[in-house]
Amino acid sequence: MRLTVVGCSGSFPGPGSAASCYLVQADDAEGRTWRVLLDLGSGALGPLQRVCDPATLDLVGLSHLHPDHVADVSGLYVYLRYRPDGVRRRGPLPVHGPFGTASRLADQYGLEPGESMADQLSVHAWQPGSPVRVGPLELTPVAVEHPVPAYGVRVSGPSDEDPSRTVVLAYSGDTDVCDGLTSLAAGADLLLCEAAFVEGRDDAVRGIHLTGRRAGLAATAAGAARLLLTHVPAWNEPGVAAAEAADVFDGPIGTAHAGLVVTL
């Protein structure tokens, strides 16, 4: 399993990165590469094209419906429907998200009543705890705490170094501390965890985002092996989230940046 950070800026695109977008790839026993995209936030479709042809995606998983996680699905629809080279997918691209995703995407694109994106996007609602199989990958949505319905996604699949071994990537989406986050990250090889808030500055705001410290505590409580912090807004000082996490988590800690590739 390989993780490529396409975009990781929190809440809006920053000067060095698009908003949330993560490509997960894994090879099956026949050597076919499967590609799952976790979120496609504002500004992310551009850099995604440097990593892969979006038409080769096998599934898009949306953690929740805020624009910094879904805005560029509109552009993806245009890319799939109107590309002039005649190359077309064999069928609509599966998109999984919270209940209401289909209507939200249609409204976002500006479709007229009765129109649908179904010719290009096959939209499904996450069923909490029910895994979705994509080639050698299994995605399990776990409800987390955010002002709108939101899910973290637990991805299991073959290790890139030893395909006989199953590894786990836990993606928090946007959340504050909750039981769902702990179960999502339990024993994960890598916890890709948001850390948008800063200790001392944002203490009065709860139920929306984590700080680096709270992300570190979550990783410790869940027994995650590694922690990769993400969704850090451009206005935060670099390194603050990692320093907070290091006070409470003993494992390896990194901070996501556009173009980062992590093998599991």
UniProtKB/TrEMBL annotation:
What is the protein name for this chain?
Answer: Metal-dependent hydrolase
Instruction: Write the record's keywords in alphabetical order, separated by commas.
Output: Hydrolase
- What are this entry's molecular-function GO terms? 3'-tRNA processing endoribonuclease activity
Q: Which residues cross the membrane?
A: none
| Keyword set includes Hydrolase | yes
Give residue ranges for domain Metallo-beta-lactamase. 35-231
**Entry's PANTHER family?**
METALLO-HYDROLASE YHFI-RELATED (PTHR46018:SF4), ZINC PHOSPHODIESTERASE ELAC PROTEIN 1 (PTHR46018)
Instruction: Kindly give the InterPro entries that the UniProt entry links to this protein.
Output: Metallo-B-lactamas, RibonucZ/Hydroxyglut_hydro
SUPFAM superfamilies assigned to the protein according to its UniProt record, in alphabetical order: Metallo-hydrolase/oxidoreductase (SSF56281)
* Cross-referenced Pfam families: Lactamase_B_2
Asked if the record carries the keyword Hydrolase, the reply is yes
